[in-house]
Amino acid sequence: MNPVLVDVWRGEWVESQHRGSLAVVDADGALVLALGDIERPVYPRSAVKALQALPLVASGAAARFGLSDAELAQACASHSGEPAHVATSAGLLAKLGLDADALECGAHWPRAETQIAAMGARGETPTALHNNCSGKHAGFVCLGCVLAGEQDRRAFLRGYVEPEHPVMREVTAALAAATATDLSRAPVGTDGCSIPTYGIPLRQLALGFARFGTGQGLSADHADAARRLRQAVAAEPFHVAGTNRLDTVLMQQLGERLFCKVGAEGVYCAALPERGWGLAIKMDDGNTARAVEVVLAACVQALLRLSETEHALLQRHSELAQRNWNGRLVGRLAATPALRGALGSLA
């Protein structure tokens, strides 16, 4: 059974607990820390978007079409569908001579209720540009425009989300190489945005992010692509998530010292370039909204050398206050002493 990583306190009583597993690995594949079962394959979902974006840069597509830092950051994103996110995805597609009809991610409403209400008041409905994966898919489309060569772009791009399409083959190959995983033997499902998602052990996911953060173990073109993507995200962290989102908040504060990306169902992956380590987390109960963010914050707090301001920020997120609808403090989510103890040995 995996260990308890997060306690949910109400008053002075532990009301609930969240179990999970995590792995910290260096770029040579050496295991730095393991808690729980790190060999069982998990679907990383959106946590691996940066690895899936490597071919966008390595192919020369990003340079050919002049993608900005914001557009590259959004290719790695699960954004909130805020107006700037929508405009960025639309702008990338415009550079390709395409529009939202080229995207095969589907449409959903933005994250913020205020924005949903404003759109409703204007009689607007969401498009694929509002989808949290629109930047990633715009990046796939950009890659496809290079792979298409002299072929008709729209015709070539049709069905790019399918596993055997040339675009998805490039994306899958990059993910397999970074994580040193034979994905032809891995469990496979369909992600929320319609692309394949593969079951990969936490140990291999952590390896992929150690490589992403250092370039070590990647091909030369993928190492260059990883560096370019990290630079873009550090320059434009808002485009990886959005207002008050943890990925954005932490990378705004820490810059290129941290790359972190949440995925659905309680998955989080991160690169810590200055330590040469990658990190992968999975909560057993799939708790993405609260518990996995507490674990990620506790890990970053313990594993990076921080200023007082940075430490205070991480402390607020690893000991997360809980308030009721009346604004009263009723409890907290907290990294367990066992988790902090294990991380403390690596500080």
Automatic annotation (TrEMBL):
InterPro entries with a match to the protein in the record: Asparaginase_II (IPR010349)
One Pfam entry name: Asparaginase_II
Protein name: Asparaginase
Source superkingdom: Bacteria
Organism the protein comes from: Inhella proteolytica
